[in-house]
Each structure stands twice: as structure tokens, then as C-alpha cells.
Design brief:
The complex is a heterodimer of chains A (458) and B (313). Chain A is an alpha/beta fold and 458 residues long. Helix content of chain A is 61%, strand content 6%. The chains are: A alpha/beta (458), B alpha/beta (313).
Chain lengths: 458, 313
Amino acid sequence: MKTKLRGFWKICAFAYTQSMKSKAMKVTMAVLCIIAVISMPLSSALSGSTKEAETTSIEKVYVYDNTGIIGEQFANKNITNNLYEGISYEMKESKDDIEDLINREDNKGEVFLVIEYSDNEESLNYGINICTYYGKESDVSSSDANDYSVFVEENVRKAVLKSAGTDEEDINKISKDIEYNVQTFNSDGSIAENDESISQFQYNFTIIFICLLIFMISFAGGKVSEIIVTEKATRVMEYILTSVKPMAILVGKVLSAMLMMLTILAGLAVSFVVSIFINNIMFPSDDGSIVLPGVLTDMVEKGAISGITPLNIILIIILLTAGCVFYGLVAGIAGATVSKIEEMAEGMKIFTFTMIVGAYLPLFLSMTNSVGETGWGTMTYVVYLLPISSIFILPQYLILGKVQAGIVVGAIGILIVSVVLLLLLVNKVYEHMLYSNGAPLKVKDIIKMAKPDKEEKC
Amino acid sequence: MSLEVKNLVKKYGDKTVVNNLSFEMKEPGVYALLGTNGAGKTTTIRIILGMLTYDEGQVLWDGKALDPMKLNIGYLAEERGLYPKFTLMDQLIYFAALKNVPKDEAKKRIKYWAERLGVEEYIYGAPSSKKGKKPKEKTADQLSKGNQQKIQLMAALLSDPEFIVLDEPLSGLDPVNSDLFKSIIKEIISREKYLIMSSHQMATIEEFCKDITILDKGNAVLQGDLNEIKKGYGRVNMIVKCERDIKPYIESFGLNVVNETPDGYHLKVTGEEQATLFLKKLIEEKVPVIRFELREPSLHEIFVEKVGEGNEN
């Protein structure tokens, strides 16, 4: 194995430096970093979120509430904050009153809060509906109207509790997010398995991670494949093979693609830090604290980082590395099955198909988990342990505390075995491609190669 | 040191592409592997270089199994290969590094071979007309085919290899560059290197190679010392040009006319005795002889005879 891998680092270093020196890479890197740098200040400037606490264009709110338990809490200013302290409220008896007011020519600074309860099960408005109206032509901005709507939405539960006479302390307790779990227990009373259902935030976190991984893996895989096809098409491969073994070539290429990816991620991370720094200078918060991106504050506030322990971090790094090497090898073998750049898309079908299946399985699993379905049973473990899908789901689930470390260790083991098997296949694929110049390999040819030889030397 | 290929067999499915091939290089020099396209030359070379596995036989260097990762081998492939978009210096240093040549040493060697092959301006860049501007190094796709071939030869020789394989080294070269490559091959030979050459240019093979193997459909149809092979055929090729028509004498001797050209009749004789008798007859008959040449068959003729004209490309 040592001989077969000899020289991989030289292959990796050359592929990495040449790719980083290429104009395409420099442009991609520059564009991504610029986007990252301007993202936060731009977002702040567009939403005006950091300034929202200062002023609002809303002067008066007319309230209609047929439930009789929500609207008056706002109108009586039992529920308010600094921003909305100066607003005047007026309760209206009927919806017609609201409509009359809306039909007036001048709605300057006015917003209409309509809270309706319908017990008609046939109606689309069955249940409680809350709507904030504002004049298109009035001076109330859409962001102010939206902010007020969010304020109402966030405080509805509080309003109901206040109407019921609940004291402030209990209201604060009950106002926190409520987690709903279903767990099974063994005959001895011990908890058998973790709850599989996930909250909306956990689902969003999982999906963002899957999307990021798809981007990383497809970029790195495409790069590996492109370099290998170029070396084949230009016949450089033949020269290199006099100095190193195919395994070293492929490992070197995969590592170079991973290094490229890490460089891009490092560049993006630095750019985000710069972006946060610029954002805090341009749009400082009232209390002088550092304004962080919403996703980070959400992670801290909603306890999503509870799974971040030293052991889990190590497991995640190993899993991500093994998963990336696995996909890199698949891409490398896929690239080696064709001999011309123009045939690359054809060769990459195996890689793309594998990655899509690998990413979609966790996607469907997290979708069903997010709506409270936990009926995947054994299939859940298949998704966790399959080498094509484990990388897409286990890192997030480990951070979220939705999967046990033992399962991750098992998935890492399976990934490592898969990587070794792929490496054993590499020699045969390369030999075939040298012999049959120009003839693309098909999946059935690769499967045939995977079968052990009777007797072969060298 | 010696290279020994023993009973080498390579199969692809049911097809045997190299069948029980054996040859040996006991001392430095040039060994020729000849054959038509698809005869198994490149497959044999790739097996020796460790790129392809084989089914039976042995490839030995100095009596031990040849390990291409340990032996310093230089290889000029039949189909030239360079990265089209990378600078020549970058890729030459990379190729040298793969052969464990330190960067500084590689730069020295690149300088030597660049001067020797006349490609300095491509590797180091032509001086810019603008003052203070750094010369722009060229990439491989900016070079002509011949110049790419020179860079490829440099890559093969940068590690100062003990064992060199040149697959069609002169194909596609103009006469001037062809002579340049030949002078480099002579330089390699003078340094006592082991060299295997494959070429369709028989004159080049005759110029450099002591021993040959002719392959046909994976089988060695002829092999050994080229001079001995030729001697074995005897001096049976006779060229005669006279001021008078000699057709009646040719017919009376029953000689086989291979060709009739402005420089004379190309005839096949049974041996030196028949040729001497024929010359004697011409002198007796006072026929003015302009040219009389008796020689062994050329490698080209031997090749065509062994492999068959139908196969030749």
C-alpha cells in the first residue's frame, strides 16, 4: 500500500497549485468572497433590521377582534415595546367599521389589525385569522407593516394568557418554544432510542447543511474528474504512470480537490468575519453588542449547538473527510472511464446519480421527520449507514443530538471500507483506460473489473 | 546490469496481445522493438514500465523483478502528452519532482536541455519589448508539435535515467530536428544507458540498434543481433547498372528482378558465387559496368518479408 501511494503528495501539491493559479479559480474565489463580504451589510441595508428599534411610520392602529381576547391586550398596551409605545389604538365593534375607515382617502400613518375567529369547518378561514392591513398609497412602509405583523404574531400567545389572567412569571415560562417528542422505552424502563422528529429550525439547519455539502462535493468531484480527463486526453497520464501508481494519482487528485474546497471555505469564512465587522461599523446595535447573522444566533438560542462536543467534532471531521474521499474517488473513477473532455458529462453520470440519491435520501428523511413522521424504521438506519448518504445527514443530526455517536462510528467504518474497495478498483480502471484509448467504460465494465482475477502478476 | 524479459504473456479476454515474448539486454545500448501497428510493441513497453499487469512471464532488471517505482526510467510515449494550459517550466519541474529530482537540480538540468534542444525562449519566455516587463513563459498549447516533442523528450531525460524507453521518437519531426534528436540519442548511448526504441523508421533503427525483436500479432517473429540476422540472409541483393541493356544476361542467369529503376536493376541472387559469375560474364562480354553492388538485405526488406506487406502501414 505504501508503494502504491508513493508520490501522492507531489501529485496533490501540483494539482492544487495549478488549479489555484488558474484564472477560473481566481475569479470564482473573488466573486464568492465579494458576495460573502457584502452579504451582511447588504442584508441590513435592505431590511433595515438593525435600525428597526428606532422608529416606525405607524401612528395609529384600528383593531377589530371578534374573539375578544387578543386585540384588547394590544389596544390597552398590555403588550407593547419601546418602538410601539407611542402608537395610539382604537377598538372597532365591527369589520364594517374597519372597511369604512379603509375606504377613506387619507390613511396616513394608519394600520388595521383584524382578528377573526371562524367556526365554519368548510371555510378557508376556519380557526383564528390575524391580518394587518395598510394603505398602498399611505406613508406606512411595507417593512414597518411587516415588522408590526411579526410583533403581533410573536405576542399572540402572551395576549391570550394575559386575557386568561395568567401572571407574568408563568407567561414568560409558557412563551418559550415547546418541544414535542415521541420516545420508546425498553422492558427495563430505559429509553430505547432517540426521538427522530425535528423542529422547523432543525429541518432548516439540516437542509442548509445538505445544500452546502452538495455544492462542496459536486465542485470537488467535478474538479477531480476534470483533471483526470485532461490528463487522459492529453496523454500526460502515461508519463506520470512511469513514476507513480494509479492509486497515488487518484488520492493526490482527491486531496487536492479537498484542499481547494477548504481554501474556498476558509476564504468564505474570513469574508464572513469581514462582513460582520463591516456590518457592525455601518449598522451598530443600540446596546453596542456585536450583531451576528440570524442563523448563528438562532443556533445558540435554540440550543442547536448542544451536540457540539470535542468527541462529536472529531467524529464529524472524520466522517466529512471519509465522505469527501469516497465521493472524490467515485468522481475520479467516473472521470477515468472516458478519454475526452467532451465526454466528461457522460462519464460523470455515475457520480451525479450517486450523489443525488445520496443527498435525496437524507432530504426526504429530514422532511418526514420535520412533520413529525418517524415511521422510516429500519430505512432510517440504512440512510444513516449507507456510504453515499451518511455524509449528508449524520453531521447535522450529531450536532442536533438526533443520532448516537455509535451510529456515526459505524457509518465511518462502512465509509472507510468503501474507500478501500474503490481504491482497489482504481488500478484496473486505469489499466483498461490505457489499453482502450478513447473507448468509454460502462458501469457493467466496472462491475466486471471489480470481480477478482484468477491469476495476475505485477 | 541487464534487462531481461522472459516468456511474457499478456491477454485481454480471449485475445493474446503479447505471446511468450523473451529478449535480453546484457549491456548498455539500444534495443529495437519493431512491428506493425497493433503488433504488441506499446503493450510490451507499458508492461516493462509497470503500467499494465501481465498474465505470465518475468521482467527482470539486474536479475531481480523490475520495479518501475525504484528504477530511474525515462519514457517518451508514442502519443505526446503535456498539460496544455500550464507553463512549461512548471510541468517540467513537476515531472522531475515525480522522479525525485530536487527543484534546484531540476532547474539546472532544464537549462542544459533547453539550450541543447533550442527551446529556451519557450521555457523562460521571450524578452518583452516593454522595459521592465517580465518575460511571459509559454504554455504547451502555444508550441508547435515538434517543439512539444522536444519538451517531452526533456521530461523523459530530466531525471538522468538509467533505462530509457523511446516510443517513436522521431515521428513528425522535420529533418533538422530529426538530426537533433539523433544527436541526443547518440549522446545517451555514449553515457552507457540502456535504451529501448520502437520506431517505424527502419533506417533510424539500423543507425542505432544492435539487437532487435520484430513482433507480429504479439509473437516475436525474428530477434537477435541485427548484423548476425543480416549475415544469415547473406549478400543476395544485387544492383547492376550498365551502359548497355543487360536483360538477356539476366535472363540467361535466371535472376529474379525485384525492381528496375534509373539507378539500375535490383536483382536477387542465390549468393556471392552467382553474383561473381554474373559480373565475370559482363566483363567477358565487354559490357561497360557503371554500378555493381552486392549487399545484405536492409532491415526494411527483412521487416516486410517477416511481417508481410499486407500488414504494413
